[in-house]
Description:
The complex is a heterotrimer of chains A (273), B (93) and C (207). Chain A has helices at 2-9, 17-27, 31-54, 67-91, 94-107, 114-143, 149-164, 168-183, 191-207, 223-253. By secondary structure, chain A is mainly alpha-helical. Chain A has one domain (27-254). The longest helix of chain A has 31 residues, at 223-253. In chain A, 29% of the residues are buried. Chain B is an all-alpha fold and 93 residues long. Chain B has one domain (4-90). In chain B, 34% of the residues are buried. The mean pLDDT of chain B is 87. Chain C is mostly helical and 207 residues long. Chain C contains seven helices and no strands. In chain C, helix 2 packs parallel to helix 7 (179-205), helix 4 (73-98) runs antiparallel to helix 7 and helix 6 (141-172) runs antiparallel to helix 7 (179-205). The termini of chain C are far apart.
Amino acid sequence: xxxxxxxxxxxxxxxxxxxxxxxxxxxxxxxxxxxxxxxxxxxxxxxxxxxxxxxxxxxxxxxxxxxxxxxxxxxxxxxxxxxxxxxxxxxxxxxxxxxxxxxxxxxxxxxxxxxxxxxxxxxxxxxxxxxxxxxxxxxxxxxxxxxxxxxxxxxxxxxxxxxxxxxxxxxxxxxxxxxxxxxxxxxxxxxxxxxxxxxxxxxxxxxxxxxxxxxxxxxxxxxxxxxxxxxxxxxxxxxxxxxxxxxxxxxxxxxxxxxxxxxxxxxxxxxxx
Amino acid sequence: xxxxxxxxxxxxxxxxxxxxxxxxxxxxxxxxxxxxxxxxxxxxxxxxxxxxxxxxxxxxxxxxxxxxxxxxxxxxxxxxxxxxxxxxxxxxx
Amino acid sequence: xxxxxxxxxxxxxxxxxxxxxxxxxxxxxxxxxxxxxxxxxxxxxxxxxxxxxxxxxxxxxxxxxxxxxxxxxxxxxxxxxxxxxxxxxxxxxxxxxxxxxxxxxxxxxxxxxxxxxxxxxxxxxxxxxxxxxxxxxxxxxxxxxxxxxxxxxxxxxxxxxxxxxxxxxxxxxxxxxxxxxxxxxxxxxxxxxxxxxxxxxxxxxxx
Lengths: 273, 93, 207
């Protein structure tokens, strides 16, 4: 059948990105792999839209503001915060999907599968302070702006500090990647990326003084602790996407294909042996 | 060529300019606090010289891949240019 | 053992030149890749912090100048010389390893670690002295930068101990030996020295 022939033939060589996408949608026998992959860019786009476009809570406002200034800032963003964070809460589970995919990659490494589970654990733990609580803080602020000033100030600091200052879990997650990649003998991910993850470790350190300072470059919106950190983190995150895409593409391209239409694809074809 | 003698000469050179830099910057250990354009320039130039020496002689940047040579040279140029610009214009020295 | 390493060296492009007087040919280009990615990135990251330091220094010149006078520049000088010597030691180590003199290389590696330990101990003593005088992380912007830069650098030194440990293991256990790992570990330590050279100039000496 032409369907099976196309599947067996593989993606058109030298094709454009849309052509490859179209082939995968129509013919890849493990399309679910690519569906999981797409949860990553989709999530990050929604994340960016929520924080930068709708709620506009990024870049964060300064720590030294008084209650009146906070109220005014919230009032300007009230609807954006409501809609943005509702969208965010509905999709916050998406990282679980692609972290699972990354964990299967880590399991293929020569380092113990414990690293894969550790990565899942730390990233899951990181979602709570790094995303959820930040959303809670801002959503609560927007819900009832006439709140008691002390409570308002508390929620404001809570929302900002939970996002910026709780990077310890992501520190450990990056460290897991560093060790797993540098120990790996199966060349699943390039060695230079293992070293590049160390940059992310450094950013987690430099953000810690946000708990101490309310003025200067080391506050949660400071030049060093936020802006320069974002440059480093952003560069690393882009490398992360590219490196994982290439690794998964390499594995997906080499998956065993059925030789004839009668033969079914073995269960768990993607699982590492 | 990285001979042992060569490496030792480099070390002696590095330590010498370090001591010179320390002497200039601290006024011979006197800890003066007054800003001084000439001394600041000297300290920064000596730092630049030391960094380049370490890169070329100890890290073998000269025989490294082209991209390493280019990015490390780019960093050297950009970074020290930024340092000079910031220190000598923004301070108003 | 030497033959196996020589073969591996030939495979990686290092020639088997006459090593009689300590000469060693440089390693072929492609071997350094991964660690250099890290080093260049780290140089840029630190570079950003140094620029921030200078910008803040520019806006608070008096405070920075007065606070700087309270630093112990002699300790700073001593620390710089210790790290320069450690860099020389690890370069000698690599030199010996290229000539397959692995026992000698291991001795140099141990001495490098010793220098690193001296640096770390001095740094901690210095901090203790400053804190005892009442000058801590939150005293003023100068000390914020001082502690931040030296602490992040010290963190790199501590990681350097792990890296030097990998280097030592590489030198001592012939089955694990790989010249590229030896060179990469040494390059990391040179980066640590290089960063300190800049910190010394900017934080301790600049006027």
